[in-house]
Amino acid sequence: xxxxxxxxxxxxxxxGKDGAIYNAAGILIATVExxxxxxxxxxxxxxxxxxxxxxxxxxxxxxxxxMSQVVxxxxxFIVELVEAMETQxxxxxxxxxxxxxxxxxxxRLSYYECVPSGQVDLQNIAVGDVIKRNWNFFVNRPPKLxxxxxxxxx
Length: 154
What we know:
Blueprint: E1 19-23, E2 32-46, E3 55-70, H1 76-87, E4 93-100, E5 106-116, E6 132-147
Antiparallel strand pairs: 1-4, 2-3, 3-6, 4-5, 5-6
């Protein structure tokens, strides 16, 4: 075998049951079914005399956080969102995303100044389905990486 590290150590592969999202106080948001964070890079293109190839240089980036929340009870997020629509003072939240490793290690990212962005479900109801509320946030400060997963080799 040429690539002896291709598969890594499958015992350390993680699934959704190993992840969680917390509020700024470190309290688990237990009703969140899934969450995703991603970054989009917006580069500036340029070309120079004597070179037919177009080039790009880093310009801006944007971080987004999306979560699907199972509606099992009224919660602070929807209360704050509705109050914000009434008062026109928009809310801002901080979150922490966590992934637990098999050996007790943890990957943790903090997301700061998250504001509602795009579409947010107020009510999303269908016969036969678990009722969920989808949230989309724009993250206004760069995420902070607090810790990384580690793998015990052996």
